[in-house]
Amino acid sequence: MNLTHLPTISVLSDSVTIAQLDDVKIIRVLHEKAEAAISLHGGHVLSFTPKGQEDLIWMSKEAIFNPEKAIRGGVPVCWPWFGRIANPAHGFARNSAWSLIEHRENENGVIVVLGLSASEETKAIWPFEFKARLTIEIGDELLITLDAKNTDDKAWNCSGALHTYLNIADITSTTITGMGSSYIDGLLEAKVCFGGEVLSIDTAVDRVYTQPEDTILISDAQRTLSVTNSGHNAAVIWNPWIEGAESMGDMNNDGYQTMVCVESTYHATSLEAAKVIQPNESFVLATSIKA
Length: 291
Fold this sequence. Notes:
The chain has helices spanning 120-125, 241-247, and strands at residues 8-11, 16-21, 24-30, 34-39, 44-50, 77-78, 99-106, 109-117, 130-138, 142-150, 156-158, 160-162, 165-167, 175-177, 182-185, 191-194, 198-200, 205-209, 215-219, 224-230, 234-239, 259-266, 275-277, 282-290. By secondary structure, the protein is mainly beta. It comes from Aliivibrio sifiae.
């Protein structure tokens, strides 16, 4: 995603500026190791391009940059739940205004830390105190870490996902390994299924893989992407295929051809069954992406 044309609002350092994209402020990182873009709306990584490479992150050409709407593509932060186990679907973090806590840089790259805390808006949806930090490390690889601390005086439950859209050359020539064989099929009413060790996609896929390896490899005709997850209990793989892409107003109709989601996920079938976080403890979920 080329953001060099966007108007600069403020210069924070040699490598970090704030730019404006429609109704959303963007943290723009231009470093000799890599370029990246992060939306403060949603704490949402939009782009990660290591030097000499194509962007590893896919963004919809029809994405809407509006504080009222989640952004299609990039790395949405799904928290304090993943899926439709409560409203809104995928939680409120991806639709919330995050703040820039700090940024620092050296010859190896740039680290950006964003914050989100409980507010009247979040408590109207989920009545708990919390303090979330999203640390985004940009260098030869991209490392995103969500650390959500329970600052309440009682325990709360949460699930979540770092919903990474990967930029691939062609879905029909892409293979995925490391996801394991057992999965819950979201297109078959959550039926538990078993597949092979190699996944090729030629139709819509919406699966929660329940025994993934920590590292999943996505290979197309041009390169292999590596996604390494921690804090997860599952990996979600998703591609909406033709009908799905056409049904979404914020996704270009041919978008399914050049993307696949491989997500670091803590999956639960309900909030009651989700991970219990005691006061002063944290829910931590991370994903690392490189070519």
